[in-house]
Amino acid sequence: MDETSIRTEVLAVLRTIAPEVDAARIDAAKPLRLQIDLDSMDWLNVLVGLQEKFGVPIPEADYGKVTNLDGIVAYLGAGLARRAGG
After folding, report:
1. Which of 1, 38, 48, 72 sits between 20 and 30 A of 56, alpha carbons compared?
2. Would you give per-residue pLDDT tens digits along the chain (86 residues)?
3. Residue 4: its H or E element
4. Which residues contact 70 (CB under 8 A, 6 or more apart)?
5. pLDDT at position 37, please?
6. E strand or H helix at 81
7. How many CA atoms are closer than 13 Å to the CA of 8, on its beta-carbon side?
8. DSSP letters of 10-78?
């Protein structure tokens, strides 16, 4: 799965929790929780949704790596590559 596909799927997961998300207004380098105004439970639901969608575990120790869109895409891309053996 390429970076563009991952980004598209991440945004789709975000929209399940926050349907008002406008992808064009997201700054990929800024924390998503601040841009979308997600509380901690909503954010946890986003992370669980990403884990379910991609099959890549995101342990609590790695939450700091997945705070913004770029970080999430990179983390999931690396996880998918490891899972595929590459």
Report:
1. 38
2. 999 999 999 999 999 999 998 989 999 999 999 899 889 999 999 999 999 999 999 999 999 999 999 999 999 999 999 988 85
3. helix 3-17
4. 28, 29
5. 85
6. helix 69-83
7. 5
8. HHHHHHHH-TT--GGG--TTSBHHHHHT--HHHHHHHHHHHHHHH-----GGGGGGSSBHHHHHHHHHH
- Residue 55 contacts by C-beta under 8 Å, 6 or more apart in sequence? 83
Contacts of 32 (CB under 8 A, 6+ apart): 14, 26, 38, 43, 46, 67, 68, 69, 72
Name the residue type at position 24: A
